[in-house]
Design a protein that fits this description.
The protein has about 190 residues and is mainly beta. It folds into two domains: about 1-30; about 40-180, AOC barrel-like. It has one helix at about 1-30, and strands at about 40-55, 70-80, 85-95, 95-105, 110-120, 130-140, 150-160, 165-180. The protein has an eight-stranded antiparallel barrel with strand order 1-2-3-4-5-6-7-8. The chain is elongated, with a radius of gyration of 25 Å. It starts with a helix and ends in a 6-residue tail after the last strand. Mean pLDDT is about 85; it is low at about 15-35.
Length: about 190
């Protein structure tokens, strides 16, 4: 009988110990990215751009077709916390307002798309111009299908070809925000 009591007591202690260990494992386990939590996206993207008068009334992602503005096409590549991406942007600038479509493409072809909204600063005496704004993620393909979220961006740009048409230049973008993926980070 004593042996039976010791065995039951040991069994109870072992069972309680296993339950405590299981609870600690669940509480302390690293959490995977779930769609509702979002993942940080931080990145840097150097790009080359060209600027043309918007005489055709072009519009990108519902932006302005005002012919008094300009259209900008920018391409580059960079690195982010979600991996390497090529960068492709089409936007209009009317006064200080910026609006357009951004597509980030991963080396495997998956794309992350965003609406680009921002404001242009005044050029400084050295011809540099600052831009600030927000990217609103609208989906994509592959692992970014159904993506959502937003990121702030800052950029600095400078022309390298003076006033020729199209004017050409370089810009450097910093992106910082959160993107929610439909199926987590696969």
């Amino acid at each position: 009988m004593l042996r039976n009591l010791v065995s039951r007591r040991n069994l109870i202690f072992i069972s309680v110990g296993l339950l405590v260990l299981a609870a600690m494992t669940i509480v302390l386990a690293p959490k995977g990215a779930r769609a509702d939590e979002g993942m940080p996206i931080k990145g840097t993207f150097p790009v080359a751009f060209s600027v043309r008068p918007n005489t055709g009334g072009d519009t990108f992602c519902g932006g302005s077709s005002d012919p008094s503005g300009v259209t900008v096409e920018a391409h580059g590549a960079g690195h982010s916390s979600l991996g390497d991406f090529s960068f492709s942007l089409n936007k209009t600038i009317v006064g200080p307002a910026l609006h357009g479509c951004l597509r980030l493409t991963a080396p495997n072809g998956d794309t992350l798309t965003a609406i680009y909204d921002g404001t242009a600063g005044t050029p400084n005496p050295n011809h540099f111009r600052d831009f600030i704004g927000t990217l609103t993620f609208t989906g994509g393909t592959g692992r970014f299908e159904g993506a959502s979220g937003s990121a702030d961006f800052t950029a600095v740009a400078t022309p390298i070809s003076g006033t020729s048409n199209p004017m050409q230049g370089i810009a450097f973008y910093l992106v910082n925000g959160t993107v929610s993926l439909q199926h987590g980070d696969q």
